[in-house]
Amino acid sequence: MRRLEDDEAKESAAASKENPLKVDPKLRAKRVALRLQFSANRSSRVSATECALFVYTEQTRWISHNEVPLFLSRPLFQISERKRLLLGA
Questions:
Q1: Does 69 map to a domain?
Q2: 31 near 4, Cβ under 8 Å?
Q3: Total of domains in the chain
Q4: Domain range holding 26?
């Protein structure tokens, strides 16, 4: 948010006194909402419990989700299932 406010201050300072910069509240609200959304996508929050479990189990990497294989056709799925059953997995 500080960077957004700094950018707005620079824009208003650059505008001359004869031609003041008029900011539409809707456009500013949209710009602020998008900035917050993009910054939230770049950050992640990890709780103390998750960190403790990570350290306690001596994991070498952080797993954020389970990977699920996606098959684009039924024959590929059936071949994979047959291999899985034959290997006893």
A1: no
A2: yes
A3: 1
A4: 2-63
